Amino acid sequence: MTPVLSVRDLHKVFGTRPVLQGVSLDVAEHEVVALIGASGSGKSTLLRCVNLLEPVDDGTIHLDGEDITDPRVNPDRVRRRIGLVFQAFNLFPHMTVLQNVTLAPRRVHRRPAAEARERATALLARVGLDGLAGAYPDRLSGGQQQRVAIVRALVNAPRLLLLDEVTSALDPELVGEVLALIRDLKTDGMTMVLATHEMGFARQVADRVCFLDGGVLVEQGPPEQVLGDPVQPRTRQFLRSVIDSGRL
After folding, report:
1. What residue segments make up the domains of the chain, in order of their start?
2. Which H or E run includes 218?
3. Domain 1-79+160-248 belongs in CATH node 3.40.640.10
4. pTM given for the model
5. Rounded alpha-carbon distances, angstroms, from residue 79 to 38, 63, 75, 83, 180
6. How far is residue 190's CA from residue 198's CA, in Å, rounded to a whole number?
7. Model confidence pLDDT, tens digit, residues 175-224
8. Is 220 left (phi over 0), alpha (psi -120 to 50) or beta?
9. I need a labelling partner for 124 at 20 to 30 A (CA). Which of 1, 9, 44, 55 fits?
């Protein structure tokens, strides 16, 4: 079966600094893959390359078998099939929650306003935000804003959802509500790649964990193996530092 996402020998350099060095990764349909590693290991850059926000220097990325790194490919068309949620919420402050969520369906996908509003309202209700559709972002908690950002990515029914450290900007007491939403998405069968510092969450929700270090995919496997009994010395060293910091 063709993977939803297939990354092959991906290289990315910023200036003279290599950020991704030959990363290869397949993600099957309905699979959840967690990317772990220290800051600067290449997790966010990998997600941005997959979404074509960063041009790749070498290698290929296939989405459902299509080479989306081919220069003839329209990146906007590709991004319509991929949802990306950033660390920062990136909501438009002058728009209500409902306006933020329906903007892309109306402007990019050319869906009728009533259809976009109906789907957005249903998704907001599902994540417990139906009573806040008319609120502006500055009236919401961080956890609520991040849930709105995830709904905004889901409203277009993406083939693949990318989540970049979506809890890192939240106060600890708000993290749980966002993680619960991601667990629900996994139950629904959403194909996801998520970069996270939440090792306990990666253990619970991921089908596979990939450890990146210095732009190299050092080790990958089931959460129990990578997080509980890693093979590579560098993985063990990283996890010891995580334990020492209290994040595991």
Report:
1. 1-79+160-248, 82-157
2. strand 216-221
3. no
4. 0.91
5. 27, 11, 6, 7, 25
6. 19
7. 888 888 899 999 999 999 999 988 988 998 999 999 999 999 999 999 99
8. beta
9. 44
Q: Any idea which residue has 């089931």 for tokens?
A: 222
Give the ranges where the chain is alpha helix by DSSP (H): 43-50, 75-79, 97-107, 113-126, 142-154, 172-188, 199-205, 223-228, 233-245
pLDDT, tens digit (0-9, with 9 covering 90-100), for 106-142: 887 788 889 999 999 999 998 889 899 999 999 999 9
Cα–Cα distances (Å) from 120 to 85, 107, 153, 162, 167, in that order, read 16, 14, 11, 19, 22
Planar angle of CA 40, 43, 49, nearest 5 degrees: 115
Which helix (H) or strand (E) element contains residue 14? strand 5-14
Contacts of 120 (CB under 8 A, 6+ apart): 98, 101, 102, 105, 133, 151, 155
